[in-house]
């Protein structure tokens, strides 16, 4: 039914889309892991565990576990190995380093690999100032409760992160949530023995200051001070929270113990062991650098998604607020008494373009002839149908109905044929699958009492709504299309009069050159031309037309693909309306941006939003997700209920709204993706006609 050249639809972009979404999910997963959102990054709540081997729990805090029996070491007398966990932190680590430098002390920093990637310059400073580095896992994971693969990954990634930042590999390891040897549990001991097989030496503590609890400066100093001149490994923190008490306590501790003859050194130097840090190989350094950039990119992706969601949420709420406000204004305007405004009874010509409409055409024509309107002619233009469409109409033998046959030339050509043949000055354009109510035409044309009105949109309703797909489309028509049309009416920027029901002044159609044929959304293209010609386009809620919606997902896809692609064609064609005055300018500066944002940009972003939802299922508390989802669903439900109330519809279909988010929404945004790709690569989409079943005509006939 179109002369557009048919080409194969693009296919490779689906693979690229899936690949892009997979990369985004992987990036978000990395971000979830490194920011501590993943399960296993916190302390296990499994309850008390069995104690570790007594040979480990009764010895010193430095453990070599690569032999059958553990070997432990302790600090010599008056030797303090200050150790700091959870860094590097951009606020607290520099303060710790400044204090150590001022007191001439050295320490060992057990760093979190993910934090190393965030602050490699601090990690390099730690080494440059003579301190020692050790591993505190990559995400501060509880090794005792983590599976074996997670343990290996935590340690391997941390080694690579440190190697990428400093060119060194570390062998010292302090497991998160550890304390003194006596507190070591059997699962933690098993994890440390597994780590020893990859060259790690475990370092626990003699003195756990528990500074993370912020018990006060005096309590931290007391907890860190060894008894009777003994040596000790002291556990403190330079990251993970407010460490102001730790900084104050460290200054006091260094001052007091230095006066008592203590020396402060790294763990390896303190026990007389060889340096724990080794030169990293080129492969390890490159892997570490790649890991850092991956983590950085993942952080950017997560931040971008947060911004995107915030923008989408703000735009969605703003759209809803504008829709509701405009709907209220529209209702007050159209439902108030008409006063002395004259009743329009001028002759009307109804034009029905038809191509293979045998399933519905009889019901359509009968409903038009049964209209309660005094002066009406019906013109059915058979556009080269291969079924008996024209014959069905002719055999009806209805008065005032004319049939015009022509070779197949497309819907716009059929409409233009009808326009030329029409006798009346007011024209109603109707699809061949549409059924009118008796008062539809009368209500539709009353707006022409205003001489500035050039065209009027009616209220299209889905007739075949008994099945789930029909209910979803019914809700979409009522919530989206008709709420939008009320808003467009108030803002005077109506971009589309639906092909199912629209009224035009004949002079307007002739002035704009008839129905255009160079886009696949001829109804949108025509409406925009009318606006740019200086006429007003309004919406009449009471002029109801029942139409047959697609009954399968395949047919829905074909229909919406054509609509979306054709709408984009029309938007591009009329882009110059942005600079025009009057009603054309209102279209350009109100209607076109609205269509761009809500029918193109946000749907294109929707696949990424769904990936973010999967990320939330993996990493966020389900209670938070459930609350957010229910909140959005309630907002959608209230909007839908309001729209149904405005249209005088029952609330029954609301039960299907939650399921609409699981299938229908995805089909709609994938249609936009397909349409944009088709447009970008320069393909021309052919007309894709929906196969009619006659369900709409049967249902409306039964209701009448």
Characterization of this structure:
This protein has 704 residues and is an alpha/beta fold. It folds into two domains: 65-296, TIM Barrel (Alpha-Beta Barrel); 337-703, Spore Coat Polysaccharide Biosynthesis Protein SpsA, Chain A (Alpha-Beta Complex). It contains 24 helices and 20 strands. The protein has an eight-stranded mixed β-sheet, with helices on both faces. Strands 3, 4, 5, 9, 10 and 11 form a six-stranded parallel β-sheet that branches. The protein starts with 11 loop residues before the first helix and ends with a helix. The model is unreliable at 1-7 (pLDDT under 50).
In short:
This protein is of the alpha/beta class and 704 residues long.
Mean pLDDT: 91
Distance between the termini: 32 Å
Q: CATH architecture of the largest domain, please?
A: Alpha-Beta Complex
What kind of sheet is the major sheet? Answer: 8 strands, mixed
CATH topology of the largest domain: Spore Coat Polysaccharide Biosynthesis Protein SpsA, Chain A
Name the CATH superfamily assignment of the largest domain. Answer: Spore Coat Polysaccharide Biosynthesis Protein SpsA, Chain A
Overall body shape = elongated
The top level CATH class name of the largest domain: Alpha Beta
Q: What portion of residues belong to β-strands?
A: 5-15%
Count of beta strands: 20
Rounded to the nearest angstrom, the radius of gyration is: 37 Å
* Sheet with most strands: strand arrangement: 15-14-13-16-19-18-20-17
Give the proportion of residues in helices: 40-55%
Structural class: alpha/beta
Q: Number of folding domains?
A: 2
Taking pLDDT < 50 over at least 5 consecutive residues as the criterion, the unreliable ranges are: 1-7
**Count of individual helical segments:** 24
């Amino acid at each position: 039914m179109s002369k557009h050249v048919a080409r194969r639809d693009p296919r490779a972009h689906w693979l690229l889309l899936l690949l892009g979404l997979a990369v985004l999910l992987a990036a978000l997963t990395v971000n979830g892991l490194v920011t501590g959102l993943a399960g296993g990054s916190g302390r296990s709540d499994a309850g008390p565990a069995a104690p570790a081997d007594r040979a480990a729990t009764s010895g010193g805090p430095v453990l070599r576990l690569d032999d059958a029996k553990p070997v432990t070491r302790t600090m010599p007398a008056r030797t303090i190995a200050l150790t700091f966990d959870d860094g590097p932190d951009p606020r607290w680590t520099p303060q710790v380093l400044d204090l150590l430098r001022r007191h001439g002390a050295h320490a060992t920093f057990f760093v979190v690999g993910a934090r190393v990637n965030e602050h490699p310059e601090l990690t390099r400073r730690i080494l440059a100032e003579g301190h020692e580095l050790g591993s505190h896992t990559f995400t501060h994971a509880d090794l005792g409760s983590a599976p074996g693969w997670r343990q290996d990954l935590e340690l391997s990634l941390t080694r690579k992160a440190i190697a990428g930042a400093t060119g060194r590999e570390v062998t010292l390891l302090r497991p998160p949530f550890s304390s003194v040897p006596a507190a070591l549990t059997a699962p933690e001991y098993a994890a440390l023995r597994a780590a020893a097989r990859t060259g790690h030496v475990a370092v626990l503590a003699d003195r756990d200051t528990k500074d993370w609890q912020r018990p006060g400066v005096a309590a931290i100093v007391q907890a860190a001070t060894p008894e009777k001149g003994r040596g000790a490994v002291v556990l403190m923190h330079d990251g993970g929270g407010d460490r102001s008490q730790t900084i104050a306590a460290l200054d006091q501790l260094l001052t007091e113990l230095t006066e008592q003859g203590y020396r402060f050194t790294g763990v390896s130097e303190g026990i007389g062991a060889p340096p724990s840090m080794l030169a990293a190989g080129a492969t390890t350094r490159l892997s570490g650098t790649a890991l850092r950039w991956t983590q950085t990119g993942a952080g950017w992706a997560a931040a971008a998604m947060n911004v995107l969601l915030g923008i989408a949420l703000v735009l969605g709420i703003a759209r809803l607020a504008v829709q509701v406000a405009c709907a209220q204004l529209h209702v007050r305007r159209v439902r108030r008494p008409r006063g002395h405004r004259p009743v329009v009874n001028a002759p009307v010509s109804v034009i029905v373009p038809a191509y293979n409409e045998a399933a519905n055409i009889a019901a359509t024509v009968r409903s038009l002839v049964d209209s309660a309107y005094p002066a009406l002619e019906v013109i059915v233009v058979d556009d080269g149908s291969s079924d008996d469409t024209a014959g069905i109409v002719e055999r009806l033998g209805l008065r005032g109905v004319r049939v015009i046959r022509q070779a197949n030339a497309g819907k716009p050509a059929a409409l233009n044929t009808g326009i030329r043949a029409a006798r009346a000055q007011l024209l109603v354009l109707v699809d061949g699958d549409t059924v009118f109510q008796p008062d539809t035409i009368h209500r539709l044309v009353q707006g022409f009492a205003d001489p500035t009105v050039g065209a009027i949109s009616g209220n299209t309703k889905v007739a075949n709504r008994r099945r789930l797909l029909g209910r979803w489309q019914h809700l979409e028509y009522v919530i989206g299309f008709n709420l939008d049309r009320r808003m467009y009416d108030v803002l005077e920027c109506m971009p589309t009069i639906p092909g199912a029901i629209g009224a035009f002044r004949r002079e307007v159609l002739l002035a704009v050159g008839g129905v255009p044929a160079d886009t696949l959304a001829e109804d949108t293209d025509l409406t925009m031309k009318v606006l740019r010609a200086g006429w007003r386009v309004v919406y009449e809620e009471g002029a109801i037309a029942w139409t047959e919606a697609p009954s399968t997902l395949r047919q829905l896809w074909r229909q919406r693909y054509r609509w979306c692609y054709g709408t984009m064609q029309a938007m591009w064609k009329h882009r110059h309306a942005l600079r025009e005055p009057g009603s054309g300018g209102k279209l350009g500066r109100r209607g076109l941006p609205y269509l761009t944002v809500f029918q193109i940009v946000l749907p294109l972003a929707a696949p990424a939003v769904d990936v973010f939802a999967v990320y939330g299922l993996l990493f966020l508390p389900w209670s938070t997700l459930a609350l957010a989802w229910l909140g959005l669903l309630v907002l959608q439900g209230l909007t839908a209920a309001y729209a149904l109330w405005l249209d005088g519809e029952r609330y029954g279909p609301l039960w299907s709204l939650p399921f609409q988010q699981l299938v229908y929404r995805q089909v709609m945004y994938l249609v936009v993706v397909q349409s944009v790709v088709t447009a970008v690569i320069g393909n021309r989409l052919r007309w894709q006609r929906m196969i009619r079943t006659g369900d709409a005509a049967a249902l409306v006939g039964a209701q009448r």
